[in-house]
Amino acid sequence: MTPAQTGAGQDPRRAPPNGGQNRHTPEGGQNRHPPDGGQNRHPPDGGQNRHPPQGGQARTTPRDARRRTLSWLAAGALLGLTAWAGGLLWFIQDARSPAPPPGLADGIVALTGGQDRIATGLALLRQGRAGRLLISGVGPQFDLDALLRATGGDTTGLAARITLGRSATDTLGNAAETAAWARENRLDSLIVVTAGYHMRRALIELSRAMPDLRLQPAKVVPPVLRSPPGPRQLRVLATEYTKYLAALLGLNRLPRPDARANGHADARANAHADARADAPADIPASLAKPPETAPITAPTTAPTRAPA
After folding, report:
1. Which end of the chain has fewer CB atoms at under 10 Å, N or C?
2. What are 37-63's pLDDT values in tens digits?
3. pLDDT beyond 80 at 202
4. Is 64 exposed, middle or buried, given 0-12, 13-18 or 19+ CB atoms closer than 10 A?
């Protein structure tokens, strides 16, 4: 066979059958890139997916954090105010609702500071509901004989059964004074006489001071609750409700530096103002003196004899 017949001396193994055109893909080299002409070097969305789907808006700036905090605070304040208002409605209803007549007890305590409380305590004592009466929070110039004359009614044999407590300046003081008197007289049950809006708070403090005593409420309806609803009534009830919540949480027992610094002068001034404002229904205003500051001790007791 001649060289021409063998492809001019070329070794058929050195070239592909198609004459060298098979160095690339069958498409003639056009397949060096992907089928989409090289446009698939980026993601299908054209490179727009380098950031999060939100386009970078997921980052929280300090301003956004402040707004979120303020929103939570406003929502919490609104919820707290709503709960407080709902509780106030319940408190008003409870203060106005009369309590059933108390049964028999070992003693009666009348907490001063409002109208008709002393007269109600004396009436219960005359009815024989208990053998002894403590009037807690009495001023040093308060005269028992004048009190009995001012309240009227039969006073025969009452003086020996009445104790005037002179150390209390507030409800906490009433509780401590009453507890000392109850221990001294070995009492197991008490009738508590105070205003309807003050009863809940008084029972809390008395129960804490005397957890083993049985307490019976005897609500007094003061003139502020007998009058038509108005700003003054709402102010009194809102104040008493807030004090009740503070007593329930124990906040009124926290130390107050201003009270220590002033020597309880403000408490004495407030007691004086309250006593004069509330005196006419129970006693002459001249007899309603604020109690002086003194350590909590057993109250001064009139000469005693066995209860009738």
Report:
1. N
2. 555 555 555 555 555 555 555 577 888
3. yes
4. exposed
Q: Can you give the residue range of the structural domain that contains 207?
A: 94-301
Task: Specify if 158 maps to a domain.
Answer: yes
Q: Is residue 36 part of a domain?
A: no
Cα(184)–Cα(3) distance, integer angstroms: 143
Is 116 within 8 Å of 252 (Cβ atoms)?
A: no
By the 8 A CB rule, do 259 and 267 touch?
Answer: yes
Which residue would you say has higher pLDDT here, 277 or 253? 253
Single-letter code of the amino acid located at 252: N
Whether the CA torsion 153, 159, 161, 164 is positive or negative: it is positive
Whether this model's pTM surpasses 0.85: no
Residue 224's CB is within 10 A of a number of other CB atoms, namely: 18
The 10s digit of each residue's pLDDT in 147-165 is 777 777 677 788 899 999 9
